[in-house]
Design a protein that fits this description.
Blueprint (H helix, E strand, L loop, with lengths): L12 H9 L1 H25 L7 H24 L12 H7 L6 H29 L3 H26 L4 H20 L9
Helix pairs in contact: 2-3, 4-7, 5-6, 5-7
């Protein structure tokens, strides 16, 4: 059983060029994204405490994302780069969340699948970064992150399959993959994860 779908569109070369041109800005945004990913996993725990089958994996994912934040922060600290004073609005995530169903069950499914798509895009972008960096330690770090994000992409689909029929999950995931493509294509090119 496949636990994710391939992205509909690849990241643009211009995006990677922007990241490599201003890597400190990318690190600042990356740190913010890891904090938000940890908070997102914990928000599932807070909103759906009755979904006991997935709580351990959600907590584990939240801890792992927080560890990634710590690792990115340590990397930034070693390079004399500070965290941003405020976390800016993520237009990409906002565009996706805006399209969620409103019913409790439907929204639960949508949020799990959005999380899967976000993690899958993160894995794709971390792979591109890892393959383009010259520093072997940074290459290794971003390869580790790309593997982790890909795993998280699978985990959220697996969680959805605990509560919804396979056909419904994959049909809706296909829809989200298309919406994600529209959202990513509509973003300005900048040195940021999204």
């Amino acid at each position: 059983m496949k636990l994710n779908l391939d992205l509909a569109v690849p990241s643009k070369k211009e995006w990677l060029d922007a990241v490599l041109k201003d890597f400190p800005a990318f690190l600042q945004d990356h740190a913010d994204c890891e904090r938000k990913a940890s908070a997102m996993a914990m928000s599932f725990v807070a909103k759906y405490p009755d979904r006991t089958e997935i709580l351990p994996e959600l907590i584990e994912t939240a801890v792992e994302e927080l560890e990634h934040f710590q690792q990115v922060y340590q990397l930034m600290e070693s390079k004399g780069i500070q965290l941003q004073h405020s976390i800016g609005e993520d237009k990409y995530v906002k565009a996706l969340i805006k399209q969620c169903h409103s019913g409790r069950e439907e929204r639960f499914l949508d949020r799990l699948l959005i999380a899967s798509v976000l993690e899958t895009r993160g894995a794709e972008r971390f792979r591109l970064v890892a393959e383009s960096l010259e520093d072997p330690d940074l290459q290794k770090f971003y390869k580790m992150l790309w593997v982790s994000e890909a795993k998280h992409g699978h985990i959220f689909v697996k969680m959805a399959l605990n509560y919804f029929p396979e056909e419904q999950v994959y049909s809706r995931l296909e829809w989200w993959i298309e919406k994600e493509a529209e959202a990513i294509e509509g973003l300005e090119i900048r040195s940021a994860l999204h």
